[in-house]
């Protein structure tokens, strides 16, 4: 069967009550679906995206050449088989691909919120999704799958809507963001905030899309250091120069430098600086135990079959964090969770690029 | 005996021939000595400083409260015992504490070199030191000790002046800078270059000392991530907020953020941006094998008794790099080298803060 890619935006006029005590009202949620919803609505798989991802996780738009960010995993006959499952991926609130975020118009004047946008948390992100699913008359799902911040959302679903998903797969993530991850985000945030072209949040989006924003580029470069492992950096770049004509040994640019530059500056053409600030904030304050007496109390809420996957050389969300989460689940008597550490040289990026290492497992879990 | 701290600057009018083919002429070298040179000049210990270090490695100036950067290691009765040894530490060329660097006056006009300053390498740094020692009539030394870029200098001495030092202790460093270290430096370099207050190198130093340079602060924050280990970040900061009054869970500043801010912004008050660019460049292009057919050919030159020390959780210059260097020395038939990995939770900073873990070893080697 074809992928049956559909993109929608739903408008909500009721207030979204946020963890901060503030409200978002009205708000939009943009989402994408693949496959067909079956009659008893028992074949829904929710996919959650990471920091800079979007609802576009599979297929290729007609006017584009680049496939969705998990296209290798999602589609007809693939691990998340759209011949069997109805897949939904929503753009998180706070992001910049259709769902309401800091550059969305604020009522009544319709100017962008900018800094007036409220702090959003991972819990707020999944609450908004849950409200969307309600509108779609989907009150429970077969599975939720996500990596990195998508894995945070999957875990947050598991705790706050324990009866919502039968199965949950959370990969390359953690139960509470650790200081080194906060530190990398801090560098990016400071770098954006201190760029005069950011204009203290009052930048012109079109100008930034055209000319880039150096502060965000630099911040993103720091991010990329955390996405790679030392092994993959050695393999991909080593100490190679971009050109090597002798002179370059003293004056040239290393391949790794060129990689960071390209990814850093290119990034500023397609992502919004305020969204980057708000979403990195959401990641930094992410902590499954918030609102509970302890992490273990939070974990006791989990009812779904839970699959935790880490990648051996992930320097951002380390295997040891996932192992710790698994051990805590053990301690609170969970009998319905599975933890698997996947050997990979790719570091944090593995969840996006080493699909071969986990796609069979995902297919098996979904069965 | 007293420390006998003396600070000097020597002026050189002969050209310094650099690895790049360019020359530096004239140039100054600022250095500091402690203890007394003995009659047969057999008690000299050279100490080499790291990226942002200076010649001031021990003692406290009369008008200051902060001791030199290795004061815990160097002094009367300490591991590098100034009652026995005559210790010399020179500020590297390219730096900003007295030796000639990018903000030094260029002849004939006496304006600062700025970008006209030549690329310097670690080999150039030690060549300049060697010339200084010649002027001081010191033609061989008892030992050379350094960590991080200081360790690079120590190794470079071992290869290029094989008969100069009897013993060499090189710690928390590598034989050739690896891509993740290059990447961290790249973030700092880009961050400085893109700051409009850097004025493409034509900044006013006094203005920067007073108001700081955000780009350099952000770059230094990234650097600090690489200086710490995950273990030390967890222990020092965890997910603690700077204040914790409840609200802070969503709106507050994490301790790690506050640490990075303080160290980042404070740094720009005492270090020069162009020196940071030039010295990080020197670190990035550092490769002991340059000019040789292979690393092993380079290592065959070593004649000094060589002591390599790594720190188990160093994320910048990893234990595995030092182990690899040790293995290569083994392969080329060296019988005069010793490698020791020190268990430490401090990461790269260990060479500055965990002196207790290696000072006895240093004392023993020097004996």
> Considering the protein shown, what is the CATH homologous superfamily of the largest domain in chain A?
Alpha/Beta hydrolase fold, catalytic domain
**Rg of chain A, nearest Å:** 20 Å
Query: Percent of residues of chain A in beta strands?
Result: 15-25%
Q: What is the C-level CATH assignment of the largest domain in chain A?
A: Alpha Beta
The overall pLDDT average of chain A reads: 96
| CATH architecture classification name of the largest domain in chain A | 3-Layer(aba) Sandwich
| Number of E strands of chain A | 14
**How would a crystallographer describe the biggest sheet of chain A?**
8 strands, mixed
Q: Which sequence of strands runs across the widest sheet of chain A?
A: 1-4-8-5-11-12-13-14
The SS-based structural class of chain A is alpha/beta
Short précis:
By secondary structure, chain A is α/β, with parallel strands linked by helices. Chain A contains 13 helices and 14 strands.
Would you give an account of this structure?
2 copies of one chain form a homodimer. With about 375 residues, chain A is α/β, with parallel strands linked by helices. Chain A folds into 2 domains: about 5-175 and about 285-365, Alpha/Beta hydrolase fold, catalytic domain (Rossmann fold); about 180-280, Rna Polymerase Sigma Factor, Chain: A (Orthogonal Bundle), CATH 1.10.1740. Chain A has 13 helices and 14 strands. Chain A has helices spanning about 120-135, 150-160, 180-195, 205-210, 215-225, 230-235, 250, 255-265, 275-285, 295-300, 320-330, 350-355, 360-365, and strands at about 5-10, 15, 25, 25-35, 45-50, 75, 80, 85-90, 105, 110, 140-145, 165-170, 305-310, 335-340. In chain A, the strands form 4 sheets. The first copy, chain A, has an 8-stranded mixed β-sheet with strand order 1-4-8-5-11-12-13-14, sandwiched between helices. In chain A, strands 2-3 form a two-stranded antiparallel sheet. The mean pLDDT of chain A is about 95.
């Amino acid at each position: 069967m074809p992928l049956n890619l559909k993109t929608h935006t739903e408008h909500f006029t009721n207030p979204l009550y946020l963890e901060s005590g503030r409200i978002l009202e009205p708000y939009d949620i943009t989402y994408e679906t693949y496959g067909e919803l079956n009659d008893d609505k028992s074949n829904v798989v929710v996919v959650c995206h990471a920091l800079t991802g979007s609802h576009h996780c599979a297929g290729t738009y007609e006017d584009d050449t680049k496939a969705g960010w998990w296209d290798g995993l999602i589609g007809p006959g693939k691990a998340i088989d759209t011949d069997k499952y109805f897949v939904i991926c929503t753009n998180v609130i706070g992001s910049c691909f259709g769902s309401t975020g800091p550059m969305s118009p604020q009522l009544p004047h319709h100017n962008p919120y900018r800094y007036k946008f409220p702090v959003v948390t991972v819990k707020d992100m999944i609450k908004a999704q849950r409200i969307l699913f309600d509108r779609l008359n989907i009150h429970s799902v077969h599975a939720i799958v996500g990596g990195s911040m998508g894995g945070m959302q999957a875990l947050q679903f598991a705790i706050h809507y324990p009866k919502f998903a039968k199965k949950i797969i959370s990969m390359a993530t953690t139960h509470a963001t650790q200081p080194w991850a906060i530190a990398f985000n801090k560098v990016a945030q400071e770098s954006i905030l201190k760029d005069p072209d950011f204009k203290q949040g009052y930048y012109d989006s079109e100008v930034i899309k055209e000319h880039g924003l150096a502060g965000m580029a630099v911040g993103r470069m720091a991010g990329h250091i955390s996405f790679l492992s030392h092994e993959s950096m050695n393999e991909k770049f080593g100490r190679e120069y971009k050109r090597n004509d002798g002179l370059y040994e003293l004056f040239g640019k290393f391949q790794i430098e060129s990689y960071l530059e390209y990814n850093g500056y290119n990034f500023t053409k397609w992502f919004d600086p305020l969204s980057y600030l708000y979403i990195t904030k959401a990641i930094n304050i992410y902590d499954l135990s918030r609102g509970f007496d302890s992490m273990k109390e939070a974990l006791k809420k989990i009812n779904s079959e839970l699959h935790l996957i880490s990648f051996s050389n992930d320097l951002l969300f380390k295997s040891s964090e996932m192992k710790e989460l698994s051990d805590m689940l053990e301690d609170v008597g969970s009998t319905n969770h599975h933890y698997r550490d996947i050997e990979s040289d790719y570091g944090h990026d593995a969840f996006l690029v080493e699909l071969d290492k986990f796609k069979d497992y995902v297919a098996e879990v979904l069965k």
